Amino acid sequence: MNEDQAPQYRLLVKEVEEPELVKGTTILDQPPSLRLRPWQWWILVTLNITFLLIGQCGAVILGRFYYDQGGTSKWMATLVQTAAFPIFYIPFFFFPSPKNLPVTTTAAAILDRPSIPMLSLIYFFLGALLAGDNMLYSIGLLYLPVSTYSLICTTQLAFNAIFSFFINSQKFTPWIINSLVLLTLSASLVAVNSDPIEHKGVSKGKYALGFICTLGASACYSLLLSLMQLSFEKVLKRETLSVVLEMQIYTSLVATFISIGGLFASGEWRDLRDEMESFKEGRVLYFMTLVGASLAWQVSSIGVVGLIFVVSSLFANVISTLALPLVPVAAVLFYRETMNGAKVVAMLLAIWGFAWYLYQHYLDGNEPRVKEMSSNEVFDESSS
């Protein structure tokens, strides 16, 4: 291609790029909201929220069950959080990529797609961060009661607001500030009124370690979400189903290999046979617990991926935090944990803080509609 033809080619790509990417023939290349009816959209959103809430509650309950019945391997608890990631290949069979795309569309996609070394670096860094985050969560769940652990995890929204401010240019509004204050008070109330006696066999030092690790895991997870959002906006420049699935698959792949490496490097793999034999509920339930926890984490992740694709990353984060105040209720039902007055107040504060955050998200979602309506009114007045 000579220099005279190059500008014409770039112009052709520019003209065709947006329409072709929006009018793709499969769900992988266009938002479903463009093709779904409102009631279908709400059913899809509700289904993904259900996956997320049930998966997250089930994963935490099974993780605590693993420790209570004699499980001791922190790396195994970390590994099960991502080991079932191949389940994300299933959507590719149901929604395969189109083979016969227009030449201009293919050229536009190639021009926008980042290089393989850049993608590899992003996936490796985020996968390593995910593995570290999973380890911190595993340590926190080992040393803390489920109710305390879950209430501390609600601080992830507060960290998310802070990281979004610095990384994603999200503004601090009065509603966000109210949410930060309430979530901080909730975590502080749990910390001040914590009682290691309610968790048998845990010293004050380990209890404090569990608290710090859980708080650090919440911050790490919020940082991970903000960096993923930044990658979608600045590097990948798309948030289609295929791109979201690839992000989930490759970061989980890296995290899984790191967890396996940690399991062997720490020497914990030598104790797995004894751990299985000494599991209070038997070998069969040992395997079922690990498999169930792994599947529950991926069911939760399916809900997150679905919400990212159908709504937004921010909304997925908000809904994932909604499950956390619900886990203490499940802990009372399954483990007969005590919910003292301090925990009840902390849970109510967390829900209140979540409500303020969700209201801000509602305002952000309505802002484009208000602008569109006002512009339409101005256009109608000028035309009349």
Q: Could you explain the architecture of this structure?
A:
With 384 residues, the protein is mainly alpha-helical. The protein contains 15 helices and no strands. The chain has helices spanning 5-22, 38-68, 74-79, 90-94, 103-112, 116-143, 146-153, 156-167, 174-192, 204-236, 241-265, 272-277, 283-310, 313-335, 341-383. Helix 9 packs antiparallel against helix 15 (341-383). Mean pLDDT is 76; it is low at 5-34 and 99-107.
Helix tally? 15
Q: Report how far the terminal alpha carbons are from each other.
A: 51 Å
Main pleated sheet: none
Share in β-strands: under 5%
Structural class: mainly alpha
Arithmetic mean of pLDDT:
76
Radius of gyration: 23 Å
Low-confidence spans: pLDDT under 50, at least 5 residues? 5-34, 99-107
What's this model, at a glance?
Helices cover 77% and strands 0% of the residues. With 384 residues, the protein is mainly alpha-helical.
Give the topology.
Layout: H1 5-22, H2 38-68, H3 74-79, H4 90-94, H5 103-112, H6 116-143, H7 146-153, H8 156-167, H9 174-192, H10 204-236, H11 241-265, H12 272-277, H13 283-310, H14 313-335, H15 341-383
Provide keyphrases for this structure.
mainly alpha; 77% helix; single chain; 15 helices; 384 residues; globular
